[in-house]
Predict the structure.
Amino acid sequence: MHSTGIPSSRSSDLSAQIEQLFSRRSLRVLAVSLPLLALAACGKQGAQQGAGGMPPPEVNVVKLESSDLALDYEYVGQTAGSKETEIRARVPGILENRLYEEGARVKAGTVLFQIDPSTYQTQLASAEAAAAVSEAKLNQAKREYARLAPLAAEKAISQKEFDDAKSNLETAEASLKQVRAQVNEARLNLSYTKVVAPIDGVTGMAAKSNGSLVTAADSLLTSIVQTDTLYVNFSIPEADYLKVAKEVGSGKVAVPGKRANNGSIGFDVKLKLADGSMFPTTGKMNFVSERINTANGGFDARAQVANPEGTLRPGQFVRVILSGAKRTAALAVPQRAVIDGPMGKMVFVVTPDNKLVPKPVELDGWTHGQWIVTKGLQAGEQVMVDGVIKAHDPGMTVKPLVVSAQAALNPPPAMPGAPAGKPASASASASAPAAASAASASAAK
């Protein structure tokens, strides 16, 4: 054994330090390695359970039942006053004064404008004077006729003289009638210098200012609109009209009431305003044209809606919702249950042995958060509405939890810790196309 040149006491101390150093390093390595080994063991165990030891995933399903489904038809409409009247001057002249406040509500008979009456006052005075002259001539003719009548009976005068007196009387009577008609016309023209409101309603802006000349060719002064009751004009596309008529004829759809003489059906009418809110008053449909409007390719229609507070104004654009119709003995699925796949619309059905099966479906319209299904499903089947993240492979076993159709219309609750405003199904929606692709391919086989 070679000597190192180090005293034996120092050599033993150095060996003790080296053993202590390696002992500390081993403890640190062991402290780091144990969690990693534990995670690896857990991962291996989880993989083993995922391969065959984990329970089937739970999914929410609805059991389909045939029922009468409410149908709504929605179109674009525009409001209009139930009465819209143009206020025009009936006689020409200088506009002296505007006597109303623009935009104010007025009653029928309220004076709105005053046209200079001096010319028409003069015409009335002249006509009255002419009537007085005609009346005097009539009285003279009456006296002459009364004087000659007894003489003619005694043959004291010639027959021609008597006939002339009678003709003068008749002419005087006719002249007086004519002049009196002229008096009435002059009085009527004078009354027209006061332009009055023909109906109750809300006034518009004045088309002319004081001092303007009003002529027969330019007689518009303002307008009045009745807004207590409003009309809503809209158009029903020809395709919709023919489809509804066909479905009503076949008994698939029932409409409220019977068709009226003017072509309208007793639909309840709801209005959706531009801000998305619903107008509180429900109206009624009261007219459908018998011919197509060639300008828009649809049937002109109209609804009547009460507007006591004056909230709606003529000319507003609204969404017209016709309600009251029903699709009889129909099937419907919630919106979340339908997936867009490469082969079209489809849903996942849970079979009686709890297997997941994709089924293509044909849809016909939307009603209150649900799609109406016309082909592909039958009453009694269970359709998955939530759980596409956990269950999206055709043929896999799932655990169905039946929920009511009304509960299925509401979005699922947010996951704990999820950001505010983002539903828990956001990731499910993102992965739905991939799941639909796999399910569509399986359905095609």
Summary: The first strand starts at residue 58 and ends at 63.
